[in-house]
């Protein structure tokens, strides 16, 4: 019996890719697009109680999926904010307006899957650094930041 190349399995231990704290949030790039040959990217996200997340927005070139692991995540979908609980899944297709926050008194933990696996980790890293340092870019700087990362903000 022959076996395919054993080097075709990548293991990314938590110890090698720990959570990065960013204010009331923490995240970790479980599988960045660079590790998946651009097929997908996977982010573990934790949001503290009563914490803002992402205001309503959309992406033109990739989809974003959400899978709730624990707590209650409030997701903007279908033009309204709605609660999502453990086991709930949502898929925001390209140009699908979505957002998330934690309106509950408990922490929420969820996965974000984006396809294709663009370099989304740079967006999350830059956002985490802004939250960690308290940096408040001007509206013009934020518009440029979002444009660089294919994130189009919309009014609720």
TrEMBL record:
Gene3D superfamilies: Jelly Rolls. It comes from the Bacteria. InterPro entries: Cupin_2, QDO-like, RmlC-like_jellyroll, RmlC_Cupin_sf. Residues 46-113 form the Cupin type-2 domain. This is Cupin domain-containing protein. It comes from Geodermatophilus arenarius.
